[in-house]
Amino acid sequence: MKKALILGVTGQDGTYLADFLLKKNYEVFGTFRRTSHKCFERLEEIKIFDLVHTIKADLADQGSIQNAIKKSDPDEIYNLAAQSFVGTSFSQPILTSDITGLGTLRVLEAIKQLTPNIKLYHASSSEMFGNYPEIKNENSPFLPRSPYGVAKVFAHNMTKHYREAYGIFASCGILFNHESPLRGLEFVTRRISYEIAQIKFKKKTKISLGNLKAKRDWGFAGDYVEAMWMMLQQKTPDDYVIATGESHSVEEFLSLASEIAGLGDWHDLVEIDPEFIRPLDIDDLVGDPSKAKKELGWKPKVNFKELVKMMVEHDIDYFRHYVDPFDISINRN
Ligand code: NAP
């Protein structure tokens, strides 16, 4: 039985990946960090918490990363842990650089010293490309426009360096945005699906948003974790863009979500809040996944409309069954 260690198993991708690997008959270990509240709700939601061996580790703490590797003795490591929210990287650039950038170096150094023969997947990001105007592939230049993007460029280049200098089997997945019903509530797609559901059940009247014109290449997280695994089944390590090849605006996401929820004209549901406007933004991010299609045999299965529907229906279902002990007047239709 193969063993996998997922750094950041409590996150969106960590949860989908753990589920995917368990179905492939892996023994799955996953790291979580100490918090003052419980942090396993995603693993619990899809009912796999009891099947994953959890180990406490923080990317700020070299010893805890080494301990996680020693305890799990894995064949494959998936480094998904990061301060992953672009918005927060503007207000916490030092923390973001420490965890998302240097944290990756701590992982690489631990692998070099303890288990140079394992296979490593590193979570790079489309945010590294910034506003480069063409469809992005593995050869496009990196022009990051956020502290998060800058930290990911550092982590990406450092991962390539350890591959070239020390022969570590390390592959980088340059993933474009991928969403799901397990996406964090601060990300714009999940905020829309969640707040649309709240509006439907009259728990609020407006959604506060920033730049409605920003366009992203949105795929489904469940499809993207398969690509991570595929990269580690190749004979040689390499870097791959994982994307759908089409982009949609925040406005389009909102319009479709409102239609699915039966709420009518989305213009009536939105207020623009300067709080959500970033000091720098990326206009349009769209990726070319041709290399992954050709070499890994990977392609996305869920399209944009199906993704929005999945997220909105999940959150409507949540509020339909949510019982607020202080409010018995809600009409759940
Ligand atoms: P996520 O839901 O935010 O999960 C991030 C994970 O990292 C969580 O388990 C989180 O733990 C953990 N983490 C945060 N700070 C840590 C620290 N100091 N030490 C150890 N663990 C820490 O993100 P995701 O969407 O699953 O993304 C997974 C990876 O892919 C990230 O590296 C992200 O930057 C990258 N990525 C994501 C996308 C996307 O669209 N989703 C696109 C490109 C790249 P807590 O649960 O305790 O917060």
Question: What does this protein structure show overall?
Answer:
This protein folds into 2 domains: 3-179 and 217-242, NAD(P)-binding Rossmann-like Domain (Rossmann fold), CATH 3.40.50; 188-216 and 247-284 and 303-320, UDP-galactose 4-epimerase, domain 1 (Alpha-Beta Complex), CATH 3.90.25. It has 11 helices and 13 strands. It has helices spanning 12-23, 41-45, 62-72, 86-91, 93-114, 147-166, 188-200, 221-232, 250-261, 290-296, 304-321; strands at 3-7, 27-32, 53-56, 76-79, 119-125, 169-175, 178-179, 207-209, 215-216, 219-220, 239-242, 248-249, 270-272. The strands form 4 sheets. Strands 3-2-1-4-5-6-11 form a 7-stranded parallel beta sheet, sandwiched between helices. A two-stranded parallel ribbon has the order 7-10. The protein has a two-stranded parallel ribbon with strand order 8-13. Helix 3 packs across helix 5 (93-114), helix 7 (188-200) packs parallel to helix 9 and helix 9 (250-261) crosses helix 11. The radius of gyration is 20 Å and the shape is globular. The model has no long low-confidence stretch (mean pLDDT 95). NADP nicotinamide-adenine-dinucleotide phosphate (NAP) binds at residues 8, 10-14, 33, 35, 39, 58-60, 80-84, 99, 123, 125, 175, 177-178, 184.
